[in-house]
Design brief:
399 residues, alpha/beta, 9-stranded mixed sheet, two-stranded antiparallel sheet, 47% helix, elongated
Amino acid sequence: MSGREERTLARIALAWLTEPGTRSVHQLVDELGPVAALELLLDGGAPDRKLRATVAARMAGGDPRAVAAEAVERTARLGARIVTPEDEEWPARVADLHGLQLPEAYRRVDTETAPPLCFWVRGAWPLAEALERSVAVVGARAASGYGTHVATELGYGLADRDWTVVSGGAYGIDAAAHRGALTAGGLTVAVLACGVDRPYPMGNAALFERIAESGLLVSEWEPGADPLRSRFLIRNRVISAGTLGTVVVEAAARSGATQTAHRALAMERPTMAVPGPVTSAMSVGVHELMREYPKTRLVTGVAHVLEEVGRIGVDLAPPARGPDRPTDPLDDEAGSVLEAMPRRGTAGVERLAARAGLDLRTTLRKLSLLEELALVVRREEGYALAPPPRSTAVRAAGP
């Protein structure tokens, strides 16, 4: 066995022994290397009592080295691969989890937020390349029709512009974002809270197969690992750390999607929220994000998202405005003359000048401009408003 294979096996064993994200384990790996760190833990030398108890409990369920060896064999049979920090395709951006500190954190999922020890990956794309230009689109499982529509549009629009769409593969917003990206023929990555061979939820099994064929399925857990509740929150730190920004489309008052946003905010990553109806329970969490965290940016479409995560001064969203009108180029004086025109019939120059409050010379000059713009017509008895275009008249006469 080569030194690299031994280190990979040690990383797998450590992840199985202590669950991903454990900070004391990650620190040991940084100081000693994965092989020595594993030996220390197996010899009962964990730096704290809680970790020693966790290791002892896991060891009662099997030999960590044997579990790791079996995971390697199962990975090969699955056609997947194991990616570690020694590999070129390791996404360097997840190292930012070193400094992740969540305010008022007391639960394990909020305090044990260290970078991953390794990843299991299904799909042909190199992981680092897939995540280089990526945006997380997350939200409620019980999504409304509005939320599903918005997530699909975001997924499609981002993928159509060569951005990777990252989400968690769940029902609702996650699945809509993945499907939008796939429909656009783009790249999408599902970060799972179980083994990459476990389609969870089962209703999305076909979706996961499509993602594996053209994108990536990624997990910190070995093949066959169960989707435990706590693992979804552990997984969320990877979604926020591996991407350039996070968009929350819909989220209830207590939602895993808002937890992902909190992690993105704590790492000072662009964090965005799509507003929804104030009467919708599925938008309560989104609106609270915007109220409590001023750095959360309101977005309503792909252009807004790209303005937050794209190149400075290049990916700017166009300002919101209504449709162009024929009167947009008019200055105040021309507008006053047009407003002075009678709705029916004609009016002479003197009458128009008096109604507009302008002198005759200025009125004549502005009438010439209005004629050029086809807004008024000159007749023998004076000036009249130009008739609407024929196509407009036909539409107006319709049902």
